[in-house]
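Page 42, continued from yesterday. The earlier attempt failed because a stray header line got pasted into the input along with the sequence. Redoing it now with the clean sequence only.
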Amino acid sequence: MIVYAIRVKGHLDLDWSACFNDLTISYEEDGSTLLCDPLADEAALHGVLMKVRDLALPLLAVSRVAAGESKDDGWPAMERAHRGEEHNVRTGSGNGEERRKSS
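This time it went through. C-alpha cells are written below.
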C-alpha cells in the first residue's frame, strides 16, 4: 500500500471521513484539510480524487509519501509545487494538457 497525502481548500467536517474511505482528516493552519492514509493502488487514489471533484472541493495538492517518511516530511515538496516552483507541474485541462518546468 502507498500512502498519499491529499490537500483540499477549507476545513472538511470529520464526518466526511467515511465518504473518503475512512482516510484520516486533519486540519492545517492555512485553512486547508489534509486527507492522508495508505491506499491500495493508484485506482483507489483516482477514486478519492473523483470524490473530491464530485464534491467540487478545490484540490490544492496530492503527494505520494515515501516509505519511512512521515506525511509532514512530504509537505516541503508540496509547498514548492503549490507555489509553482516544483518541476513538471501540470497546467491546462482536458486533452492536450501541457507540462511546464519552472526553475
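Notes: Residues 85 and 102 are 6 Å apart (CA to CA).
Reminder to self: strip header lines before submitting.
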